[in-house]
Every structure is written in C-alpha cells, then in structure tokens.
Amino acid sequence: MKITNRKFREEKLLQAEARYQAIVNAIPDMVFCISRDGEYLDFKGEYTTKEIVGKKLWEILPANVALLKQEAIAKTLVTNTLQVCEYQLSTPWGVRDYQARLVKSGENEVLAIVRDITEPKKTEIALQSLAQKFSKAFRCSPDPITISTLKEGRYIEVNESFVQLSGYQPSEVLGRTAFELNMWVNPSDRTKLLQKLQAQGAIRNQEIKFRKKSGEIIIVQVAAEVIELDGIPCLLAVSHDITERKQTEELLRLSAQRDRLLTETLMRIRQSLNINEILQTTVNEVREFLQADRVFIALNDSCDLFKMIAESVNPQYPSVLNWKKKDETLLQELRTKLLTDRVRVVEDITQTTVSPQLAALYQQFQTKASLAVPIMLGKELFGALIANSCAKPRCWQQIEIDLLQQISEQLAIAIQQAQLYQELEQLNNNLERQVEERTAQLQQKMQELQEINRVKNVFLHAVSHDLRTTVMGNLMVLKNLLKSGGLGTGDRGQGRQGGTRGPLWGLGGEGRQGRQGGQESNLSSLPPLT
C-alpha cells in the first residue's frame, strides 16, 4: 500500500514537473534560476546551459547590472514579493533593453524571467515624447483646452487658458461637471453637441455660450473629438473665445440698423408734416431696434404738465399713454433729472436713489431699467424720449444711448418744423380770411358803383332829353324866323326893342347876321347829350 502511494505521488510529481516545464517552455522569455549569492542554477533561453549554469552574475553581466540584480534577489528573498528591474546590455544587435521579474522559488533561490523590452521601450519613449509634446501644447495653448468624460462631462484635466478664461481654479473644476458649475447658458447645447459628435465623429467651429465664474456670458467656438483614456471614452475640447468678435459684428449690425433708422426718420421729417405719424412710427422702430419693452415720448406741457403723445409697448406691460399726474414735485424732479443728466441711464432701478413718488411710478409701470434723453428746443425742455425694460434690469449700450440722442435731435427738428408749419398755416388762414373779407367789400363797392353808374345814366339821359327838346325847339323857331326874313329888315333900335320880346330878340341886323348864322351852325353841330 505504501509503495503504491509513493509511486502515485511520484507520478503526480512527474506530471506536475512536466506541466511546469511545458509552461516554462511556452514562455518566450528567458528564464533563470539564481541562488542567493548570485549563481545561476538553471536556465532556459537562447544560450546553452553550459554557458550560463554554474556561473556568477559578475561573470556574465556588467558590474552595474550584476549589482542591480543582486540587490533585487536579496529584496525578493527578504520580502517574498515580486521585484522588477530594468537594465540595458550591449549585444551583437546593439544596445538592448531588458526587464527582469523576480519571484522567490526556494529558500535561497529566485526565479527570474527576463524579457527583451527594446521595442516596447522605444514605443514607450515615443509615447512619452508624444505625451510630453501634447502636455506642452496643452499647457501652453492660448485657447482653453479641457478633457472630460464623455458620459457625464466630468472634468479630468484643464489647462491654464481655461482657468484664465473661466475664472475657476483647477481645484474647483476637476472632478465636477459643467452643469454642477452652471457654466452652460443653454443646457440643451451639450445634448446637441453629443448628437453631432455621434453623427460626424468630430466637431469644428461650433458656437456655444458659456457662463464664467463671475456670471459674465461669453461666446466660444468649440472643436471637439472623442478620445480614450485608460479605456474610458473622453471628450477633448478646444475652445476659442469669440465674444469680442461677435460683439464687434453685433455692433456693426446695430450701427447699420441705427443709420438706417436715422435716415428713415430724417426722410419722414422732410417728406411729412404729420407730426403724430412721425412720432408714432419713430417709437415703433426705436423699440424694435432696442428690443425694449416700452418706448414713449412725453411732452412738457404747461397745462397738462407732462403729456404722453406716442408710445410703443409690449402688450404684457401697462401703457403710459393715459397717465396724467398733477404732482408738481414729481414732475419737477423728472424735469430736473432730464436737464441735469441730459442722458439719464438707469440699469437697475433698485440700485438707484430716487424719491418715493418716482419709485412708485416705476413700480406702477413695472419698470426695471430706463433710458431717457431730453428733447430740447434751444435751451427749453420740450419733452423726452424714454425707453423702458420691464422684464429685467438691463445694461444699456453706448450705441443705444447714441441712437436715442440722435433721434431726440431729429424729433426736436420735426416738432419745431411742425410748429412753424402750424404758425404758417394759421397765417395763411388769416390771410385767406382777410382776402375773403376784402373781396366781399370790393364786390359790395362794385355793386354800389354799378348802381351809381345806373342812376347817373338815367339822370344824364333825362337831362339830355330835356335839353335836346328845348334846344331843338329854339332851333326850329329860329329857322322859321330866318326863312320869313323878319330879322333882316329891322334897324338897331327895333332890334333893341324887339330884344325885349323873346330870348332870341337882339340877334337881328345886318351886322349880326353873320354871327347869327355862325351860331346856327354851331348849335346844329352840338353832339347829343344822351
């Protein structure tokens, strides 16, 4: 029985040795069995056993390598743990890199598996060089670069440019997501970015809005690709801040729109004298340009104090058109602020000091921010052009302030022109009325003159008729006398005596006959009186 058990154990041992020998033979690396004092006890590899077994480390290896291996052997036997050491050897194929992995195989011996790692080492060096180059590019890039997990967006690495742009220190960012830091202005942008990545494999020049630590909104142009780090899909993103460029583009757009609005306003003022139409169109277009909630024009009326004459307002907010206030203190405050500030800019009414009455006015019309410029006619305050933001406080841009100032100047011209037109129209009306009155008077005088002429003609006709009748009668009597010869035989005394008998007596006598004949001729040639 004991013999059978011994044989069984021997067979098992032989099988185990054969199995272990097969494993060793299957290992492509060189295998050495080395004693505590550095003697090679066994060997498997490219060389013959006689060349290796029985020799010391110092006989085969360079002194520095032999010392390194001896220290590793001692540490392996003391700690009973795996030890790894790397070294270089000169071979017929040049300098090669080797890695020795040592484990304790007996009380005073170790098993060393030596592998040629020249090619992996070169690859590692190349990767290290590439990693070093990437690290330098990552650190020195003027554009922010981030590496984050693809699934959650959790930051793994950020460069200095990201720190400067975002305002966050690395310790505040690493291990956290942009959502946790509230950096996404539009959270849906990340979903769209991932969808585009999945469809295209990479992203170029994607414009995204981010929020800095200070709360400032910036616009960045993002290029991103998916990479793997330790088997984890990650997102490598490079961002370029284009906020200033976008602001410049927006400024150019607004400038062009402002110039167009000013040109159109000037044309309306030149072509139209309907002041109400000009004012209403102006507030409509100014509100559209400013994207404000309310724009209106108030006139400084001595009777109604302040009169709202034109307004464009978002339907969500109350209108100021019907507002009238007889509070002289409040109105004087408004006048003073307009005349003192010239341009009154209020970005947040909660951060400015005003009277309780004015604060109540802001609250009544839900005003959060206000921009007001006076409309001046010479040195006189004629009114004001006012824009309100009712949804939230607002930072008014300089181009917006300039627009309202230029529009107010044009409105002053339009209002002054309308006043002059009204005065001219009034003068024309007065002149027309006076002309009508003078015309009526002249017509009346003409009628009177015609009547006088008619009466005169009637009178002259009557007088002429009477005179003609008398004269003709006398002429007939005279002719008859001449024909009868009665006037030619009498003497001078008889003539004087006969002169007492009628109006024509005394014309007789030879001395007067020529004159009598001449009178007859003259009388007969008189023109008619009628």
Looking at this protein, list some descriptive labels.
single chain; 530 residues; alpha+beta; Beta-Lactamase; 4 domains; five-stranded antiparallel β-sheet; 52% helix; rod-shaped
Q: What's this, in brief?
A:
52% of the residues lie in helices and 23% in strands. It contains 15 helices and 15 strands. A five-stranded antiparallel β-sheet has the order 2-1-5-4-3, with helices on both faces.
What does this structure look like?
The chain is of the alpha+beta class and 530 residues long. It starts with a helix and ends in a 6-residue tail after the last helix. It folds into four domains: 2-117, PAS domain (Beta-Lactamase, 2-Layer Sandwich), CATH 3.30.450.20; 141-241, PAS domain (Beta-Lactamase, 2-Layer Sandwich), CATH 3.30.450; 252-424, Beta-Lactamase, CATH 3.30.450.40; 485-524, no CATH class. The chain has helices at 2-26, 49-52, 57-60, 63-79, 118-140, 160-166, 170-173, 188-200, 243-271, 275-290, 328-341, 356-364, 398-484, 492-498, 510-524, and strands at 30-35, 40-44, 83-91, 94-104, 109-116, 145-149, 155-158, 202-211, 217-229, 232-241, 294-301, 305-313, 344-346, 369-377, 380-389. Strands 2-1-5-4-3 form a five-stranded antiparallel β-sheet, with helices on both faces. A five-stranded antiparallel β-sheet has the order 7-6-10-9-8, sandwiched between helices. The model is unreliable at 487-530 (pLDDT under 50). The protein is built from 15 helices and 15 strands. It comes from Fischerella thermalis CCMEE 5268.
